[in-house]
Amino acid sequence: MKIGLLGLGTVGTGVFEIIQKRKEYLQKLYGQSLDIVKILVKDKSKKRQIEGVQDLLTTDPYDILKDPEIDLIIELIGGDQEAYEYMKYALQNGKHVVTANKAVVALHMKEFLALARKNKKAFLFEASVGGGIPLLKPLRQCSLLNDFYEIKGILNGTSNFILTKMAEEDLDFHEALKQAQHLGYAEIDPTDDIKGADVARKLAILASLAFHKDITLENIIYRGIRHIDKKDIYYLKDQGYSVKYFGKAITDREKVSAVVEPVLFQKISQFERVKDSFNMVSVKGDHLEELRFYGEGAGKNASANAVVCDVIDILIESYQRDFVVLEEQKPSTNGQLIEGKYFIRVNLKESSHSCHIFNLAYQNGISIKEICKLSSQRRILITEKTNVERMQSFIQNLKNLQTSFFAARIEEE
Amino acid sequence: MKIGLLGLGTVGTGVFEIIQKRKEYLQKLYGQSLDIVKILVKDKSKKRQIEGVQDLLTTDPYDILKDPEIDLIIELIGGDQEAYEYMKYALQNGKHVVTANKAVVALHMKEFLALARKNKKAFLFEASVGGGIPLLKPLRQCSLLNDFYEIKGILNGTSNFILTKMAEEDLDFHEALKQAQHLGYAEIDPTDDIKGADVARKLAILASLAFHKDITLENIIYRGIRHIDKKDIYYLKDQGYSVKYFGKAITDREKVSAVVEPVLFQKISQFERVKDSFNMVSVKGDHLEELRFYGEGAGKNASANAVVCDVIDILIESYQRDFVVLEEQKPSTNGQLIEGKYFIRVNLKESSHSCHIFNLAYQNGISIKEICKLSSQRRILITEKTNVERMQSFIQNLKNLQTSFFAARIEEE
């Protein structure tokens, strides 16, 4: 099996290394060889960490995509438009595609699955969610026999690393972010990690596979975590809570609610014990009460491992037809199915705004259960049980009254 | 695809129901139908909970095994000798085999895998470990790319239910066992659950797949939990520990240590949060730092779900060659690789025996770090770090000095 690799960054290098290391073993086991024959890079002259790649490098994607010898494309260039075009071209021209690109999968899964089906090729993307955790394959297989109605989890290593550091080492958000960048967890531009797009994309992929519905990034409500401060963490810790950045999707078979927001876990939760760059995903269904999957959510070896697992599935033809079919209609989505009490910390523009908050909550159908005055401007509110739809509207309206603000749902287990 | 079902107990009934329920859906998806055409039972006249089975029942296994129309056997009669013979006969005569029978798999995995390979048929046993958790399939796939060196977990629902009840409801071991039996968790004869054979079998299966070694029941060291009493639980809770019945296997590639014994977890561990009949398995390797799988470890729907997943893999031919090959040589095994401090509670025959314990420990290479006198006869000891090999020998020698005794390794995380 001849492979064209698009991208030789961290994960691409890991994929190359694992395939080299396991080549003989896999050849012996399956009687077939895995050969990376061409690699797309931006700059051929750049110094590489690995040997034996120099002769394989090309800067022209179509040098790979049009090569009739190549059976399979591994797409690891990231980004959106180009990756989309290359993968589409590959599938349309009879090549299997394996990708770690959550951005493209979260927007175009349905199109690519249909294209793969039509061309009798594989389109696999295990590495796009949960790093090295074998997650999507068991999930889609179990989804054939289960009506899953909830999927949720800690899905972003960078934000989880930041929250872990803030809690354990008493750091500010920006200090913790700097550490994450220094250690290579966070991108130079961490916007997607801390504003929620990364988790939202992963949640779209998970919910699509679990519910068999065409759920894309536009269907996900998401709020960032960058307004949390050291004092919030401290206060919540004292109350027995840990903050996690969390994605959760629920369906009643008609509608879907999918939201990414900070949530609070009590110490007794397994999710509370998920530290640093680890991920944990839970799925609930009718036959299988609950499954949880835990492992490294990012990193060179973990992601590369997931990519090569997909490649092996194609090699031994165990990918075939092992797939869910998404419903034709896009589901209707809103935030009503996800409920809970909220913790809200708000720094008011003026201390006299305090009573406005009660009115505002009331207008949005939210009851405030407790209020605590931390300083003349700083308040903590605990709401009665409400839903994400109402909360979103409340948060929107609160904008005029506050200078800084953090809200997290209390996730009951 | 025509299926012969051996056994119509709890799991068998669940398998029948799931296949009926999903028949049309699977037919539409894969263009093939799953039909259970014959069912082996002990007593045809027994009243059944499900309809539509009466005409399929037979009391003669060879009525099924010799039927040339039948493609696949699902073995759910349990037990040892007969199940072994039927499965062997089925594979030798060109039928696929799916089983939940951990007793047979833990003893004869290597033989059955070779037989299946030779006859180009599938031999799958997802339901034998971890109930409904998709565990064995991801494990054996990841084992192709990883050198796993440790696998461990909570693998028995009955004992975990008993320990949960003892801790949460202040029950005696026998009261908790009675509750487990009343609720259908525990068998009428719970020996295998509480003396460790059940966990040992599952650990043998997991370690074989993870390490690619022929590890069978005889290679597992196991100690039961029935000597734990209410006061132990109480004392340990006060010290911040929970007791779990735990299987753990480690390899240094040459040797293997595999042991089933009570262990202590601190409150911060995810394993501590595994309650009732849930299971959790952790595996550590070179590329994937750690993976954890969590879900219902037993029960009609969970186990039936795992069985039908295997059947679908065969239906869509995604089982083929997706398998590990076990090393030819059996590995050498002892308890030396598994280390830790031990908590020991002992009721001495005579209070003067206290100093004998120090000598005995010393003779077995174990240092006692702390000793606490709870009553004239009852002592608690904490050892320095030692290994299972030494501990086994110490426990053996302690027999003459004690009337009752409980030892648990402190599992550090």
TrEMBL record, chains A, B:
Protein family per UniProt: Belongs to the homoserine dehydrogenase family.
Pathway: Amino-acid biosynthesis; L-methionine biosynthesis via de novo pathway; L-homoserine from L-aspartate: step 3/3; Amino-acid biosynthesis; L-threonine biosynthesis; L-threonine from L-aspartate: step 3/5
Chain residues that bind NADPH: K102
Annotated residues for binding of L-homoserine: E187
Keywords on record: Amino-acid biosynthesis, Methionine biosynthesis, NADP, Oxidoreductase, Sodium, Threonine biosynthesis
EC number(s) stated in the UniProt entry for this protein: 1.1.1.3
Residues given in the record as NADP(+) binding sites: L6, G7, L8, G9, T10, V11, G12, T13
Enzyme class: oxidoreductase
Full protein name: Homoserine dehydrogenase
Catalysed reaction, written as an equation: L-homoserine + NADP(+) = L-aspartate 4-semialdehyde + NADPH + H(+)
Pfam families with a match to the protein in the record: Homoserine_dh, NAD_binding_3
InterPro entries: Asp/hSer_DH_NAD-bd (IPR005106), HDH (IPR016204), HDH_cat (IPR001342), HDH_CS (IPR019811), NAD(P)-bd_dom_sf (IPR036291)
Membrane-spanning residues: none
A GO biological process held by the record: threonine biosynthetic process
Aspartate/homoserine dehydrogenase NAD-binding domain location: 7-126
Record: active site: K202 (proton donor)
Record-annotated Homoserine dehydrogenase catalytic domain positions: 134-312
GO MF annotations in UniProt: homoserine dehydrogenase activity; NADP binding
